[in-house]
């Protein structure tokens, strides 16, 4: 199943505020909410400093942090300012993330009126014990309520984020979570494996022995159960962690914005820590609200660093991101960009992976099989370390705009 490969650009806005940090999250945010008005002004000012010449945008993703700490009038200001400062195409996908604890029916209706047409709800689990372990501020009842209210507010494109692989997480418990999620018939379900990111409270608990992670084999069982259960309930996997409800048009319910990251389309990030990628150049903003505000209020772009990717780095990212997607690496596009026949240059490695039934190669794509997806990182590393021109380049996970592994 081939997905659209739009090279129109995407916009990402990072809202750097949370009522409380979750134990597992390493995305930048702070809990000092008194800076919200000042940040809103700076964000709109940053839009006027950004150069987007020659770019047309068909997605806007407002993530964080917790965007729903802002009421609908503030979100309306953001959406209006975006349309004034960027070439936004008709029928653009405009997404906002919400936390079930900070979104009311009135607020959701206001988001719709402001132009938001896709909502992503951070449910994570319908089990209160799991929510407490993760440090979420919402309850299971609030999660159920906000999903129902999102439908009532008129949202057709509703996404739910779920997390699996918690310590002691049984296949039965995860199955109950997924079954409850599918009962609401959301357009999209993202299922992320719990990771112990450096600097998070959860990582500290891991190092101290207070928590014991699941074994890789157990996590693999949960991953495979995810694919099977969601496919049985009318969803198709289009990326390693992402599932869209099946429609006549396969592209109807995918996250068009996140697809830009995986296909290496251009994107611009606004707000602290946000990353941008245009024509082989990646740059990112200050990882601090304070430094961000100082830069903007001084009339300077809040850029912290830049890098220009080498051909080897671009090739590695193309391979890694392509393998994340169910349709796989576009062989024609790979040849056109790099002047290299992917199937030929990696023929020995591919032959070995085909014997293990981890990869399948057609005339147009090279894609991981159902079994191979469980070993994504290991297989991607094999391509990186192979004795071919891509060897020795930098890491293939160099960007973050709220797209967890």
Q: Please, could you describe this protein's structure?
A:
About 2% of the residues have low confidence. The protein is built from 15 helices and 15 strands. The chain is of the alpha/beta class and 405 residues long. Helix 1 crosses helix 10, helix 2 runs parallel beside helix 3 and helix 6 runs parallel beside helix 8. The chain is globular and about 60 Å long. The protein folds into two domains: 253 residues, Aldolase class I (TIM Barrel, Alpha-Beta Barrel); 75 residues, Orthogonal Bundle (Arc Repressor Mutant, subunit A), CATH 1.10.10. The longest helix has 17 residues. The strands form three sheets. Strands 7-8-6-5-4-3-2-1-9 form a nine-stranded mixed beta sheet, sandwiched between helices. It has a three-stranded antiparallel beta sheet with strand order 10-11-12, with no helix packed on it.
How are the elements arranged and paired?
Elements: E1 9-15, H1 36-49, E2 57-64, H2 72-85, E3 88-98, H3 105-114, E4 118-124, H4 128-134, H5 140-152, E5 157-164, H6 171-183, E6 188-193, H7 201-208, H8 216-232, E7 235-239, E8 242-245, H9 256-263, E9 267-270, E10 275-278, E11 281-285, H10 289-297, E12 303-308, H11 311-324, E13 329-330, H12 331-338, H13 342-345, H14 347-355, E14 359-361, E15 365-368, H15 376-385
Parallel strand pairs: 1-2, 1-9, 2-3, 3-4, 4-5, 5-6
Antiparallel strand pairs: 6-8, 7-8, 10-11, 11-12, 13-15, 14-15
Helix pairs in contact: 1-2, 1-10, 2-3, 6-8, 11-15
Largest sheet: 9 strands, mixed
CATH homology superfamily name of the largest domain: Aldolase class I
Give average pLDDT, whole number: 93
Q: If you compute it from the alpha carbons, what radius of gyration comes out, rounded to the nearest whole angstrom?
A: 21 Å
The succession of helices and strands, N to C, reads EHEHEHEHHEHEHHEEHEEEHEHEHHHEEH
Q: What fold name stands as the CATH topology of the largest domain?
A: TIM Barrel
Distance between the termini: 22 Å
The structural domain count equals: 2
CATH architecture of the largest domain: Alpha-Beta Barrel
Tell me the number of strands.
15
Going by helix content, strand content and strand pairing, the class is: alpha/beta
Outline type: globular
Q: CATH class of the largest domain, please? A: Alpha Beta
Sheet with most strands: strand arrangement: 7-8-6-5-4-3-2-1-9
Proportion in β-strands: 15-25%
Our count of helices gives: 15
Q: Helical amount among residues, as a percent range? A: 25-40%
Q: Indicate the low-confidence ranges by residue numbers.
A: 391-399
